[in-house]
Amino acid sequence: MAKSYRDLMVWQKGIQLTTMIYRLTKSFPREEIYSLTSQMRRAAVSIPSNIAEGAGRLNTPEYRQFPGVARASNFELQTHLVIARELEFGDVGQIDLVEGLSHEVGKMLFATITALNNSDKAVIVGNNRPLTTDH
Fold first, then answer.
1. CA gap 96, 81 in Å, rounded
2. Exposed / middle / buried, residue 61 (Cβ in 10 Å: 0-12, 13-18, 19+)
């Protein structure tokens, strides 16, 4: 059984996604530092942060809202990536990799949300070890 949110594959992938976003946005125009760059970084950071915060809750009802917030942040990030691509900011290959990872994280978040909504004792898979949350 996983003992920590750090054992959750979705959290690990969220951290990877966040670091990729920071690297991608380093090459964005300087005048974007307080707009698109900032928005993308904040949305990315929100994903693993909400996974961790949810895992820290004492019961499943409290936990339920946080993967949904992480999923919404992921959708926001995907929108920012479309805008960056349209404006020709960043390396296209990097954007492709980030979008792929974002979609993978999205699927994992959806599975987490589904598991939380479909059981009294939710099982969230991380590295083939379950993290359980009780009411």
1. 9
2. exposed
Q: How many residues does the chain have?
A: 135
Q: Two tokens at 15?
A: 């951290």
Query: How many Å apart are CA 57 and CA 65, to the nearest integer?
Result: 10
DSSP 8-state secondary structure symbol assigned to residue 58: S
- For residue 28, the tally of other CB atoms under 10 A from its CB is 17
**How much is the pTM?**
0.86
| Residue 8: DSSP 8-state | -
Please write the tens of the pLDDT for every residue from 64-100.
899 999 999 999 999 999 999 999 999 999 999 999 9
Q: How many CB atoms sit inside 10 A of residue 73's CB? A: 22
3-state class of 122 per DSSP? Answer: strand
Report d(CA 126, CA 72) in Å as an integer. Answer: 21
pLDDT of residue 69: 97
Q: What are phi and psi of 121, to 5 degrees?
A: -120, 100
Residue 101, judged by CB atoms within 10 A of its CB (0-12, 13-18, 19+), counts as: middle
